[in-house]
Amino acid sequence: MNSGRKVIAIPILSNLCSFLPQQSLEEAHGQVEELLQQNKDLRKKQADLEAQLLLAKRTKSKSSTKSTKADDGALNHELMLKLGKRYAIMVFPWPNPSFFMTPPDMAALKPEEPARFETEESYYNGSINELHAYLNDPNLSKLAATYGLFRTEFLGQVKQGRTSAIHTVRESASIIMAGIDVPVLAWEAKAGAAIRKESSTLKALLAFSGKSVEDEKEIFSPIHFPGAQLDFQKIFLNEFQPKV
Predict the structure, then answer these.
(1) Are residues 199 and 235 part of one domain?
(2) I want to staple 116 with a disulfide (CB 3.0 to 4.6 A). Which of 50, 109, 165, 189 is the partner?
């Protein structure tokens, strides 16, 4: 049916291309080939750079591991094990990292001076000197004051020693209680509360005559002193003091 409209034929692409100059087609084709080659070269360079970066990371990791092992060689593992675990029991079970990387202060209070125990601040101030006195060796003192890896290793061994000591105390609690004529059940956290509160033996260890166990103003207890006799020249700061 012819409604009077004109039909316009759309030329196909192949027909249009035939009207373009042959030289323009060749130039466009050449540019495409050039771009494809540049893209290929860039991908190759990217792959090379990624390989170099991966190799650099592996080399750095190996170098760091070797350096750490070389640094570890400056420390005697058996000695560090002994020093750390003994320190946890005989000196202080919770040493602070600030005790290290600093030389002893000659003007500070001596470790066993009574004045050192008057405040928490004075106690910690004397802990640096106490650490060096405990090490009792110029070379070890130098490592404690200057060598970060010594601090890390020492604190790690103290932590292990503390955990082991607490476990041993808990496992031996019944034997300890029986040895001081305290009912074994006194060690139980809840069940033994009444027994601990009424035990004359525990009261004698935790409060001096005429003093109350519950008096928080009393810093020291008989258990802090040899033979439970008050003597500030022979004080022992017991971090494992039981609470009643």
Answers:
(1) yes
(2) 109
Phi and psi (nearest 5°) for 27? Answer: -65, -45
Residue 242, amino acid = P
- Domain presence at residue 229: yes
pLDDT at 22 over 70: no
Higher pLDDT, 179 or 68: 179
pTM of the predicted protein model: 0.50
Whether 156 maps to a domain, the answer reads yes
Does the residue 23 lie in any domain?
no
pLDDT digits (tens, 9 = 90+) for 108-120: 888 888 888 888 8
On whether the CB atoms of residues 102 and 128 are closer than 8 A, the answer is yes
